[in-house]
UniProtKB/TrEMBL annotation, chains A, B:
Signal peptide: none annotated. Belongs to the D-glutamate cyclase family. The lineage of its organism: Eukaryota, Sar, Stramenopiles, Ochrophyta, Bolidophyceae. It comes from Triparma retinervis. Keywords: Lyase. GO terms for molecular function: D-glutamate cyclase activity. One of its GO terms (biological process) is glutamate metabolic process. Pfam families: D-Glu_cyclase. This is Uncharacterized protein. The keyword Ribonucleoprotein does not apply.
């Protein structure tokens, strides 16, 4: 597999061995491009099979801990440059994990082999900025021949790290999707792409808020540190119990709402910009990659 | 100026003030997008004027310490997506600092007002992958109407930090351009763009090598930590005294060659890929931005 260090190659002893095992130099030069190592844990492959067979069609929070989860955006080639630039300019909300070659649905930067048309639990389809189909389980018949697929990191990726540090993840405890809200924070525009930042919200005990910051900031590909802590109204959120996507979760006495940037920003932007055609994941129903994040 | 926090606005007290002073949320969300603050130091504006008037036409190492220096690549729109993806996939060598809107030559993400067609000391022009003109001081007549301008960070940016830490910067001491070499390390391809990594080399005393790593790694937009330390032959470099770009510098007894990825990788790639048309800076003759890096 191009760009991966295979555990089967044995120890990496020098640059030549490294290069021989890589085929190219991505892992050596750029930690963002590919898994840091291979892994015998096949949970993510099994999980993608469950999605492909439509056995699993719901949110992915709590699934396959330790592997990077991703938002999906598929656009026609004519929109690809502007969107890539948009992500570059708004990397906190839209951290690019991989971009497939034109027409391809196999993200070789983050999996050995997978099919983005079937391997997510659920998909949305947008036409002229409007959601026209939701919760599809297979988009093979809709995938454009010139489609460019973008994978953007998701904060579900670090939930197990919070849990391991004894910080409750309410949406996982309650077996619900995370709460997501459109904010009043404007993204930096790029070409035709414009819109507002979407955030996730996790209720966190006062004594744990700093820990959530220091833990999540280690995962910039999964949105990193929170962008806002406390008052929802500063973000233009009127009522936490009415999320724009996902499910409401309880905020208990003594807990503070902690807001991370969310990749669903890309869907808000697809709508606000009136993009002619897009396929995305259904919010909360992410692509689980092979990329190990810790 | 869009996207900048103006020092004249007084203290930033809350999110609303921050948003009011920003116009958009880039600085709040994404440290990569714009200067961290304004600054009364006008040295970089004066320096760009010297370039515009063709008073300064040489390398920029040692100029305007504290401001991010950038490589320039201008391509036709048809090549822009593939190149942006190439930079995304090879961010160690090609860290994106700003991308202008189609046809624009004013990089609003990193300067209040500047003209990329005149404000660099010297330019190269490539046609069908070949260098056809070098050391031009003004490219206004050559700039394509559909040109997309990319700015990529440069390691000159942290030279003054090394000097402040009593680590010699030989190329500055010797008043020479830095030494640059094409290596045998292959970049990860993107569309038509392919080629090898170019590196800079700084000779460093054995006792200072770790310091160079820990200091430069703080500047990922300026290539961050070295990609290789020691044996040039591992990188396919036969003779350090014969750099592919820039000037040779002396490596003294007890010094180790320290190699950082270099933005001239983009020019190597323009040549290797046979790109139809490109304007770039002349290696070592960078664009000095307003972006403060420490």
């Amino acid at each position: 597999m191009e760009g991966f260090i295979s555990g089967n190659d044995g120890g990496i002893k020098g640059l030549k061995d490294l290069k021989a095992s890589l085929g190219d130099v991505d892992n050596y030069l750029n930690h963002n491009d590919a898994p840091s190592s291979s892994n015998d844990d096949d949970s993510k492959i099994s999980f993608r099979s469950l999605c492909r067979s439509t056995t699993h069609t719901g949110p992915t929070n709590g699934k396959c801990p330790g592997f990077l989860q991703c938002n999906l955006v598929v656009l026609r080639k004519e929109d690809a440059f502007d969107f890539l630039l948009f992500c570059q300019r708004n990397s906190k909300a839209c951290p690019i994990v991989d971009v497939c070659e034109n027409g391809s649905f196999n993200p070789t930067g983050v999996t050995k082999s997978s099919d983005l048309r079937t391997d997510l639990p659920a998909y949305n389809v947008y036409s002229n900025g409007k959601l026209v189909q939701g919760n599809l389980s297979d988009v093979r018949s809709l995938w454009p021949s010139d489609g460019v697929a973008f994978l953007l990191g998701c904060s579900f990726t670090f939930d197990h790290v919070l849990i391991a540090n004894r910080i409750s993840a309410r949406h996982i405890e309650m077996k619900r999707n995370v709460s997501m809200y459109k904010t009043n924070l404007k993204c930096r525009e790029a070409g035709r792409f414009k819109g507002n930042v979407v955030v996730t919200m996790r209720p966190v005990k006062g004594g744990d808020v700093a820990k959530v910051v220091t833990l999540s900031c280690k995962y910039p590909e999964a949105h990193g540190a929170p962008i806002h802590i406390g008052s929802p109204s500063d973000l233009g959120i009127a009522d936490l119990s009415k999320p724009d996507w996902g499910d409401p979760v309880e905020v208990r006495e003594g807990e503070v709402p902690v807001f991370h940037a969310c990749g669903v920003t890309s869907q808000e932007v697809i709508m606000s910009s009136g993009v002619s055609f897009a396929i995305t994941h259904s919010p909360g129903c992410m692509f689980v990659s092979d990329k190990i994040i810790d």
